[in-house]
Amino acid sequence: MEHLSRRRFLKISAATFGAAAAASHWDPLTRAAAAAAADAPPGVKTVPTFCEMCFWRCSGIAHVRDGRLWKFEGNPKDPQSRGRLCPRGTGAVGSYYDPDRLQKPLIRRGARGKEEWTAVTWDEAFTYIADRMGRIKAEHGPEAVAMLNHGIGQFFLQHALKSWGAINFAGSSFAQCRGPRDIGFALTFGTGLGSPEPTDIANTNCLALIGEHLGENMHNTQVQEFAQAVERRIPIIVVDPRFSVAASKAKYWLPIRPGTDLALLLAWCNVLVNEGRYDRAFVEKHGHGFDKFVAAIRDNTPEWAAEETGIDAATIRATARELGNARPASLVHPGRRVTWNGDDTQRSRAIALLSALLGNWGRKGGLYFAAGMKVAPYPLPKPPKSDKPQADNPDGERFPFADEGITNGIRDATLTGKPYPIKGWFVYSTDLMYALPGPQETLQAIDKLDLLVVVDTMPSEIAGYADVVLPEVTFLERHDQLLTGYGRQGWLSLRQPVMPAPHDQKPNWWIAKQLAAKLGIPECLPFKDIEEYLRFRVEKSGIEWETLKREGVIMGPPAPIYVEDGAALAFDTPSGKVEFWSDQLAAKGFDPVPRYTAPPKPPEGFFPLITGRAPVHTFSRTQNNPLLHGLMKENEVWVNAATAAKAGLKGGQYVRLKNQDGVVSNRIRVKATQRIRPDTVYMVYGFGHTRKAMTNAYLRGASASQLATRYVVDPLMGGTSIHSNFVTFVKEA
């Protein structure tokens, strides 16, 4: 069975390896890269490092042949990749050789968005930034400079800004991705799920995927385990308006009406309770408020849910029974990027409650307790404290259950000047024009800034509006913060340079140190260089530095991850138990048990727009990569064949999409198919770039984020919905 899984998994990767091999036929894309290759000794050198093509961060081994970056493949020692990388990972070679990479620091010399730049030295760029920051600090205080970030490289720049006095930091990974899931589970079990989420797909006997596109969303470990689950022929339930790759492997495909997932989840809970198919022993011992929960879901019958979801009651019952019969080795995947409709924390809490009914918390085949390993910190000086509240969520009053910074909250504070003005943004490794819905609000907020600094490897959409653009090296050219991984066993991974920077790009740690020196606080990053910092942490933890450099991955000590193996159950909730009924939600005026509200209906002639992922791209980050672009140049709009015929559309023709607010997209090709509901359209996220500097990605396909002019904010934690817009078709002449 494992052999077959490997064949299936590598079938996708083979095309990318082939494309990577073709890199040897490219003209050298930079003179510096060519010169480095010419001076290099012949032969093959291998360097272990970990990937940043997505945020799964698999460890891999880079191969350099005759001075040229040749290929990147999985590290067999890595528990994430198990020696196999996904197509995006193997395509990392293209990120190094991309001819459109940012090369030198840039200062804007025209109006924002006009793309008129002056190339400057690093010292000139830092002098400009420090001068603007000084003016902002003098007039508004250091809290008026915020950082919006993503990725492991943010750490050192964050610390430098904190040491200067900044307090407002937020990553889109919370409010635009996993936040509702982690808060929903924390409200139920007392803890979030972390990343990667501890789904024991390898051992489950029934798997339900609700809008989770495994096989298209290439989170490596889970895709490998999903292939094995398919081979084991366990019942797989896929809930999705679209017949996805995962749906093609499932026993049940439930083509649900968009926005009605919570109705289905409550009905599943109703069946498990009424038919006694839940884990009574777990609930009686560890449950809080179960009787109130049962009363709250009494009317959420399959017949009721059928009217809302479009799924017949018999199928709802059959799938609930499959889940209940396999308990506790029964798993409803908690998902990622679960900011869909605005009620997403309650939707995720319903998944958590369903998991509690199945008794799968800490059980084999359910949600295991992830193990980690401890690594010594570096003794960095502590930043000063501020007497001001954080601007995104002052004193937790706006979003009472948020436990991380909220990107759109910082944007709101920038727009309103409340609770105090935000006048400077640092944007690290995230394209806010794609990450945040409401792009018109992002542009309005930028107009109110006195300073916008973007640190990136590529001329992203957000970089086009920057005052200063700082070019970072790719992950293949730098050291980074250590990766301490959590999973069935903890591990430590090292990122280290494979190739030299082809131009005047610099690593994030160097950028942070130089900026700190220019701001007059060099002592906040007291190490000489990154190797000194990393070596201190590694050796202080009792690990040999040379061994970690050579192996790339060091495994931590084993620990029990299942109740069956001795792991203890503990719930950090107010009641100390699993909260079927949440008193803390009730105290804040929210539903103590999730309650379904029907989604808005589209205007006549419009359709709900839903989005998803592609195996070869990571949101908007990879469309320009020469290798990955060759595998998928543009996205398509999926339209049911009957709907297409009624609208006079044919498969393969180009149209534009117009949303309910009159915003019209770039051209996008129609995919007329039976594999989607007649009342829904779908597109892969991340395409439709409008920056000419991105020569491969420029105007390729349409941007879902451009069409996301309306969104609903989750009142519990501040997440923003991405499936709240409706579109119709505009035919081209």
Q: What is the percent of helical residues?
A: 25-40%
Please identify the oligomeric state. single chain
Topology-level CATH name of the largest domain: Rossmann fold
Mean pLDDT level: 94
Structural class: alpha/beta
List unreliable stretches of 5+ residues.
Answer: 1-28
Summed up, the helix count is 24
Shape: globular
The side-by-side strand order for the widest beta sheet comes to 5-4-15-14-13-6-7
Termini gap: 52 Å
CATH architecture of the largest domain: 3-Layer(aba) Sandwich
Number of strands: 25
Q: How much of the sequence is in beta strands?
A: 15-25%
* CATH C-level class of the largest domain: Alpha Beta
- How is the main sheet built? 7 strands, mixed
Can you tell me the number of structural domains?
4
How large is the radius of gyration?
25 Å
Strand and helix layout:
Blueprint: H1 2-21, H2 31-39, E1 44-50, E2 59-65, E3 68-74, H3 87-90, H4 92-97, E4 106-108, E5 117-119, H5 122-140, E6 145-149, H6 155-164, E7 168-171, H7 172-189, E8 206-210, H8 220-232, E9 236-239, E10 252-254, H9 261-274, H10 280-286, E11 287-288, H11 290-296, H12 302-309, H13 313-325, E12 330-332, H14 344-358, H15 407-416, E13 424-428, H16 432-435, H17 439-447, E14 451-456, E15 468-471, E16 483-485, E17 491-493, H18 508-518, H19 530-540, H20 545-551, E18 553-555, E19 578-579, H21 583-587, E20 607-612, H22 626-631, E21 636-640, H23 641-646, E22 654-659, E23 668-673, E24 681-684, H24 704-707, E25 726-731
Parallel strand pairs: 6-7, 6-13, 8-9, 8-12, 9-10, 11-19, 13-14, 14-15, 20-24, 21-23
Antiparallel strand pairs: 1-2, 2-3, 4-5, 4-15, 16-17, 17-18, 20-25, 21-24, 22-23, 22-25
Helix pairs in contact: 1-8, 6-18, 7-14, 9-12, 9-13, 9-14, 12-13, 15-17
